[in-house]
Amino acid sequence: MILSLKNLSKSFGKTEVLKNINIELKEGEILTILGSSGSGKSTILNLIAGFEKPDLGVISIYDEDVSFKEPHERGVGFVFQNYALFPHLNVFKNIAFGISNMDINRQKLQVEKMIKLTGLKGLEKRYPHELSGGQQQRVALARTLATKPKLILFDEAFSNVDSVLKSKIERELVDIIKDSGVSAIFVTHDSKEALSISDKIAYLENGEIAQLSTPKQMYNLPKSKSVASFFGKANFIEKANKSYCIRPEECKVNKDGKIKGVIGEISYQGERYEVEVYFDFEGKNYKFILHLNKDEDVYNKEFINFDIDWKNLCI
Fold this sequence. Notes:
By secondary structure, the chain is of the alpha+beta class. It is 24% helix and 35% strand. The longest helix is centred in the middle third of the chain and has 15 residues, at 166-180. The protein is globular.
């Protein structure tokens, strides 16, 4: 186990920011910590990095208690939100900065290895202002990897990336991390990003872990309504005194469907329609969001019939 957080708690003054946090991370895994603003996600990152010290609990890296060790003693790399590149140094020198105490020949070989790994070949002499946001991010990652950390921490890694290129850059970064063999922890507020890049996700609410699971479990088997809603459109319904989360795609529209709903607001999403449907079920009134095929003639309909897939969607 590369990282273990046991019963971790942290307060600032009278404000309890983290309460009894327990997380384990295996070698090569990518964990994403997310939650709304003020949920405590950045505080966890700062505790792991050593920028803050816990009030209670233990932080272990490879079974060594590092709870009160200084940042440089932990073998942890940190990629900051703004990348923190040196504007007066070119790509090669930026990457070499963290290993400047290394023999010059070994230093050159290590930098060249990182340049190849991160796809920066041909950009060695460029300065940060001459690079795109994605290229700057790769330089920051290469500089961190050059120091051979056990674990890399990313604070809002994709917040400065053009939204059009975001998914491509996410995939590239994850591939580089996986190829390097290190473990990584990302902090973000973007649920789509978390679902895309993670091996597992820790979702925080008010300083506590509301759910820790794989992306598929987080989406399909949420443990609460707040978790379900954070990770996409969610409909909630009661059946036989049990509460269920039904994703829009789990509602199958067909003319013989057992549930008949009144069509409300319709939103065209390009690849599909997003439709509000009002209906009664077991004596209660509900409003669902359904996803309909873009070729469906929804504007000329008053009612719609559909069935619900109840399988594995209980919360």
